[in-house]
Amino acid sequence: MPIFGIGLYFALAIFCAIHAVRHRQPLYWLFILFAFPLLGSLVYFFAIYLPNSRLQRNALKAVSAAARAIDPQREVREARLLYDETPTAQNRMRLATALLDVGDAPGAAAEYEACLTGPFAADPEIRLGAARAFVECQRFAEALHLLQPLRQERPDYRPEPVALLFARAHAGCKQAAETRAEFEAAEARFGTYEVKAEYAIWAYGIGDATTASRLQAELDKIAARWNPLTRELNEVSQSRLQTARDLAVRQGEVARA
Question: Where does the chain cross the membrane (predicted)?
């Protein structure tokens, strides 16, 4: 029995070590994990693995979605009040994120632009948020200008959102080859519903029926396994996907006429 316990400790340490190597964590984690397999694994799990896991992201999304449904402007009010009291870059970034989450992309872009002129302009979270706001405002070239150095300097930083923003920005700039390359790479690497949905939305928009049909079939299979909470979390993506699909059908009917 003690041998089994020791084996379990080292199995957990190996799991954490593989995660650390694949996600380019500092190498001192390997020493910690194998020098203190149980304690090190627990620290790594709660400090590194869990904050970046899809499980926690989904839980946070669910809480945020519920709060927004009850009072959509609450976070904006609180963020604005906090920034007025303490006008730091961190509080301004919180305000920009809140504005973006309620659909005020121009307001969010203005706040992010102010952050980009300050001492924290190179902060990856600010760059990513600003790029997201620029894409929503259809300022696609400016978004690419932010995303390119972010990927070069921090290739491990939130690679899936960065890839999707790259793809959408290229699409907005009418760069079809670059857009397809980004979507194909993101689908191969992540394969999430969001990636496939964004790829399908673009495919519908350019009239690529073959790609859109393949992705739609895969998306339908994924959605069929969802529980009500997961369906609610992906409601925005589903709505955008359905809109793109309906538009493609109408355009096809016009073309046939």
Answer: 30-50
User: Would you report the helix, strand and coil content of the chain in percent, each value rounded to 5?
Assistant: 80, 0, 20
Enumerate residue ranges in the chain where pLDDT < 50: 1-5, 55, 59, 66, 254-257
Task: Compute CA 236 distance to the chain's CA centroid, rounded to the nearest angstrom.
Answer: 14
CB contact at 8 A, 198 and 172: no
Residue 154 DSSP SS3: coil
d(CA 66, CA 32): 39
- Residue 69 has a pLDDT of 53
Furthest-apart CA atoms within the chain: distance in Å: 76
pLDDT of residue 97: 92
pLDDT of residue 40: 75
DSSP string, 22-57: HTT--THHHHHHHHSHHHHHHHHIIIIIGGGSHHHH
Q: Tell me the two tokens of residue 101.
A: 């989450």
Enumerate the domain spans of the chain: 2-51, 60-139, 158-257
* Tokens found for residue 45: 């799990």
pTM for this predicted structure: 0.72
3-state secondary structure of 184: helix
